[in-house]
Amino acid sequence: MRVLYYQSSKLDGEDFLYVDGKLDTNANSKGAKLQSDLLTKVVKNQRPPWVTRVDGYYIMSGNLTSKDEAGRTMGFLYCANKVGRKEFKQSLIDDLKSAGISHDARTEDVLNKYIDKGRNELLIIAILAAIILVAIFSILTTGTNSTL
Questions:
Q1: How far apart are alpha carbons 18 and 99 in whole angstroms?
Q2: What string of H, E and C letters represents the secondary structure of 48-103?
Q3: Positive or negative CA dihedral for 44, 47, 49, 53?
Q4: Rounded distance, CA 32 to CA 18, Å?
Q5: Is the pLDDT of residue 123 over 70?
Q6: What is d(CA 120, CA 14) in angstroms, rounded to the nearest whole number?
Q7: Burial readout 56-88 (b: 16 or more C-beta within 10 A, e: otherwise)
Q8: Phi/psi of residue 29, each to 5°?
Q9: What is the DSSP-derived secondary structure letter of residue 29?
Q10: Which residues does 63 contact at the CB level (< 8 Å), separation at least 6?
């Protein structure tokens, strides 16, 4: 499930909720409940943009390129499950595009750093696994040679 929530540009307007790329006007929908539940689990005092993972969902709070009637930067909250980091970014871009909005450069930077962090973690794990395998192989071959 993918959920995009963002504020209206009109000060007295209704906020927007998109679920799986479609506008959802039901305040009691599964998407609205998910968005509310996930918000209670993440730190609300963080200033956007930020991205994290909670209960199998990637969650991002960011800024839009749009401004509201008062000239303030508009914000959004996005969550998606069953995707990897790169897929999360692409689904965010696609869902923002389907809503006719886009995120700002600072949000893009935070998102890219988060994706790179995941790539770096995988690289470290792969290097450690290779070192362990070499050590095990070395121990096994050394042990075999000493018994001959």
A1: 8
A2: CCEEEEECCEEEEEEEEEEECCCCCEEEEEEEEECCCHHHHHHHHHHHHHHCCCCE
A3: negative
A4: 9
A5: no
A6: 41
A7: ebbbbbbbbebebeeeeebbbbbbbbeeebeeb
A8: -70, 165
A9: S
A10: 48, 49, 73, 74, 75, 76, 103, 104, 106, 107
Look up the pTM and report it.
0.69
Q: What is the pLDDT of residue 125?
A: 65
pLDDT at 126: 65
Q: Name the strands in the sheet holding 50-54, side by side, starting at the edge strand that comes first in the sequence.
A: 22-23, 16-19, 2-6, 73-81, 57-67, 50-54
Record the tokens describing residue 93, joined without a space: 């871009």
pLDDT at 92 over 90: yes
